[in-house]
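Protocol step 6 of 9: fold each sequence in the batch and record its structure tokens directly after the sequence line. For illustration, a two-sequence batch is reproduced in full.

Sequence one:
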Amino acid sequence: MNGISMIDRRPPRPSSVAIADAPTLEHLLGDGPFLRVVRTICPPGLRLEGEIDLCSQGLLAAALHQAVQFDSGDLHVDLTGVTFIDVGGIRTMTTAAKTLSRDGRRLLLHATPSETRKVIHLLGWETTPGLMHCVGAMP
């Protein structure tokens, strides 16, 4: 060796293993928008912060899947810190609600932005089994 060492200084990327182990998850896109997913205990669920779009939809889907599989009872999702949700993100949440409804559980969306409620209504998704809107942030 010539005395030169190579060290990878890039931050590790989130993976399905990290999703299972980390209480806080972030999906960073360079210097651009991000989605932060924080697991909550009481009530059981997720607090979302940032943007939900094509780039962050996989992280949202993985976090919802984990919560649906391993939590019991209704699942609360706090959207207070969300600045943007595209149709794919809404579809991901309605899919989780349908899965929960099979076991008599619900996906409770807290502080759903008015634009998101409008899109849900226009697409006819307000009748999705297991989907419920709650006024205000999670307790």
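Sequence two, same batch, same settings:
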Amino acid sequence: MEIELRDYVTAPGLLDDWIRGWSEGIMPIRERCGFQLLGAWVDRPQNRFVWVIGYYGPGGFDAAEERYHSLAERGALHPEPSSFVQTAEITRVAPISRDRV
């Protein structure tokens, strides 16, 4: 499985709007595209939303990401959920076993 750690900071006062757009729009579409939510956390004082998403399927993560962004359903989300995000750091990470640490 390919995994991304996504760390977003929203504009002040917009964290709940982001979470609503993410949970009602983004994640259902991503799940239909084969992505798996591995976890999500919020740091309210910092307007920060951190989530981990994985993909294991045909063509790999990059191809699935491209399919997701090309869907009309994704383009039709309103308001555009990413418009709430001020900064985003996305890092591709790989799992390790405890005996390899």
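Proceed to step 7 once all outputs are recorded. Observation for sequence two: The radius of gyration is 14 Å.
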